[in-house]
Amino acid sequence: MTEEMIIAGFGGQGVLSMGKILAYSGIMEDKEVTWFPSYGPEMRGGTANVTVIVSDTRISSPILQEFDTAIILNQQSMDKFEEHVKPGGTLLYDPNGITHPPTRTDINIFKVEATRTAVEMGNPKVFNMIVFGSYLKVRPILSLDNVEKGLQKSLPDRYHNLIPLNLQAIQKGQEIVEDVQLV
Amino acid sequence: MGEVKLMKGNEVLAEAAIRCGCDGYFGYPITPQSEVMETLMAREPWNETGMVVLQAESEVAAINMVYGAAATGKKVMTSSSSPGISLMSEGISYIAGAELPCLLVNVQRGGPGLGTIQPSQADYFQTVKGGGHGDYKLIVLAPSSVQEMNDFVDLGFELAFKYRNPAMILADGAIGQMMEKVELADSKPRWTKEEVVEKNGSWATTGKPATRKKNIVTSLEMDSGRMEQNNLRFQDKYRKMEENEVRYEAFQCDDAEFILVAFGTCSRVCQKTVEMARAKGLKVGLLRPITLYPFPNKIIKELARKALGFLSIEMSAGQMVEDIKLAVYEAGSNARVDYFGRMGGIIPTPTEVVEALEKIFSWELSYGVKRSY
Fold it and tell me: What is the pLDDT of residue B348?
């Protein structure tokens, strides 16, 4: 199993930290992981993206042109990455702020109302964990036990009291993800 | 098994330095390697092992602090990125001339000048061919993973002390910023004062006992005859390194007609390229030099007997390709050697490399034999 994915959105949406929790969860499952961020001035307020690779075997290139999965959280990233999903791959997006929804018919498209749900849950910060939950639902590559361990490992001790809330958000994301059928 | 963590390459450099018993780090921040000193400062190793961590006023000051501290026989290091290494180059030449061991790290970014903060490998010539003035060589290790960022700190110090010569880890911004699973080494204590005297007392300024003459550490020798002798001694040392310290990894080279040669981040890209090319039925292998100096000439000469072509994949305008050409020429082979790469902070993708390979070697791919000129 090798899952090559890109998570892309605005700086501040928790793109990089979602990738980190995913990578840590992979380690808990004894997988090889690589987390490769875009870095540089564009991170301050602009778009942010991270390539995450989880694999049973040694990971080759962290630089990829095509992805098994793209998690897309703003229009700029949609414009940039929709075409880079492998045929038969998965695209998961939050429709909030998306003016041009994906149009490809050769990939599996899923939608999660994460921004709205996070507000409804009373904590916009769990936004990324709702998206993460949706991802785990449509690409069940990691067990929830290991995701919980991944959260413990990647969050500093002072935030450990927030783990139940994060798990709740992951649960929520699994419930609300919608399969988008394009014909 | 050591502790397993998810860490950035830069953070691992700092952690590995503490764990391998490093005595001192002197540096000046620069993107994309600032996390090295940031991690060290946060870890406060001076409380744990007594290691000194000092932010100097400039790169020039930092490298001269390394020079001074290395003269005492202790394990000291610095890290920087391309423009900072240029500033340090005078000091590095002095350290090599004074035959002092130390560990240098260059997490390369794109140049020339201030350039960009994105990854690059355009400091290959600077690192392998000199950088500073005079006939000196650095032992150069090129990590391609976060795990190797950990492993090469200890190895770098070991080789530096074995040859009394500065060693450099030549990484790039991608490996510095990337997080991967890493198994950290177990902690080793720093050398005690007695151990430093025992290991390095013959040349270092450890305090003069009555039993020997004073040790003088300098790169200066006004007598030309003696200076030539010094140079001959350095050259002997470099020949020994070339004999004993070459490291490389060959990936699917046994039946390969085309050999990609790449180090660091590019070698990771090329591993994927090999998989993609093999899936298309092309017999492609990858040679990954781990030591850039000493360069793995011998294996290239061996491969040149069978291979139709070599393609050097670099994040530069083509620098390592010259060393490959030399080796192929020395082998008397007419295998064709070419280069493909990106510059300015852009990393070539595996797809691009496959396309480049097919384009550059279209003749050989069509006819299956070496093209003669």
Answer: 96
Residue A38: what pLDDT?
85
Question: Per the CATH hierarchy, to which homologous superfamily does domain A2-180 belong?
Answer: Pyruvate-ferredoxin oxidoreductase, PFOR, domain III (3.40.920.10)
pLDDT tens digits, B231-254: 999 999 999 999 999 999 999 999
Name the residue among B178, B273, B348 with its Cβ closest to that of A36: B178
**Mean pLDDT in chain A?**
93
CA atoms of B343 and A113, how far apart (whole Å): 40
pLDDT > 70 in chain A, percent: 96
Is the residue at B55 inside a domain? Answer: yes
**pLDDT attached to residue A40:** 64
Claim to verify: residue B16 and residue B139 sit in the same structural domain = yes
> Do the domain assignments include residue B215?
no
- Residue B302, chain A, CB below 8 Å: the answer is no
Chains A–B, number of C-beta pairs less than 8 Å apart: 73
Do B178 and A65 lie within an 8 Å CB cutoff?
Answer: no
The HSE-up count of residue B249 (CA atoms within 13 Å, CB side) is 15
- Taking each continuous run of H as one helix and of E as one strand, the counts in chain B are 15, 14
Residue B204 in domain:
no
Q: What CATH number has the domain bearing residue B57?
A: 3.40.50.970
Q: Check residue A46 and give its pLDDT.
A: 76
Instruction: State the CATH number of the domain containing residue B334.
Output: 3.40.50.920
Range of the domain at B299: 248-367
Q: Give the ipTM of the model, two decimals please.
A: 0.92
**pLDDT value, residue B366:** 87
Per residue in B10-25, pLDDT (tens digit) is: 999 999 999 999 999 9
DSSP A68-123: EEEEE-SHHHHHHHGGGEEEEEEEEE--TT-SS----SSSEEEE--HHHHHHHTT-
Q: Does B4 sit within 8 Å of A34, measured CB to CB? A: no
Sign of CA dihedral A43, A45, A46, A49: positive
Mean pLDDT, rounded, for A32-61: 86
> Do the beta carbons of residue B242 and residue B345 sit within 8 Å?
no
Q: Suggest the residue from B146, B172, B269, B272 to mutate for an interface test with chain A (most A CBs closer than 10 A).
A: B272
Give every strand in the sheet of B284-289, ordered side by side.
Answer: B248-251, B284-289, B258-261, B309-314, B336-341
Across the interface, do B178 and A153 touch by the CB < 8 Å criterion?
A: no
**How far is residue A12 from each of residues A46, A73, A155, B273, measured CA to CA in Å?**
9, 11, 16, 34
Residues of A in contact with B347 (CB under 8 A): 63
Which parts of chain B sit beneath pLDDT 50? none
List the one residue out of B334, B357, B174 whose CA is nearest residue B261. Answer: B357
